TrEMBL record:
Broadest EC class assigned to this enzyme: hydrolase
Intracellular or extracellular location(s): Cytoplasm
Upper classification of the organism: Bacteria, Pseudomonadati, Pseudomonadota, Alphaproteobacteria, Hyphomicrobiales
NCBIfam families: histidine_hisI (TIGR03188), PRK00400.1-5 (NF001613)
Source organism per UniProt: Hyphomicrobium denitrificans 1NES1
Keywords from the named record: Amino-acid biosynthesis, ATP-binding, Cytoplasm, Histidine biosynthesis, Hydrolase, Nucleotide-binding
Similarity remark: Belongs to the PRA-PH family.
Any one biological process term the GO annotation gives: L-histidine biosynthetic process
Protein name as catalogued: Phosphoribosyl-ATP pyrophosphatase
Keyword tRNA-binding applies: no
Pathway, per record: Amino-acid biosynthesis; L-histidine biosynthesis; L-histidine from 5-phospho-alpha-D-ribose 1-diphosphate: step 2/9
Reaction(s) catalysed by this chain's protein: 1-(5-phospho-beta-D-ribosyl)-ATP + H2O = 1-(5-phospho-beta-D-ribosyl)-5'-AMP + diphosphate + H(+)
Gene giving rise to this polypeptide: hisE
Amino acid sequence: MSDTNTLVQLAALIRSRRSESAEKSYTAQLLNAGPERCAKKFGEEAVETVIAAMGSDAAALKAEAADTLYHLLVLLESRHVALDDVFKVLEGRMGMSGIEEKASRPRSTS
């Protein structure tokens, strides 16, 4: 199974959990709580990933990275953003340096 396929399958599973009982599905609980709760949980997992990355335990980093990816997919689903749309953004950035890509973004006026 390819890495991309794993993410696509996980995103589809998360989408299917939207219609399940929150009593039986943690994913449904998160989705029912709304985007703000999903964003908070994603942020918590991202911080845990950073902490694991600063340590020397590769297994811990892998586990936290997996948790972070899962919670990112839940957050995207909570806002009805398709993973394929995120892939399209990434594909559009391929072949350009990170410095060029960042410079090409619209600047905020606030």
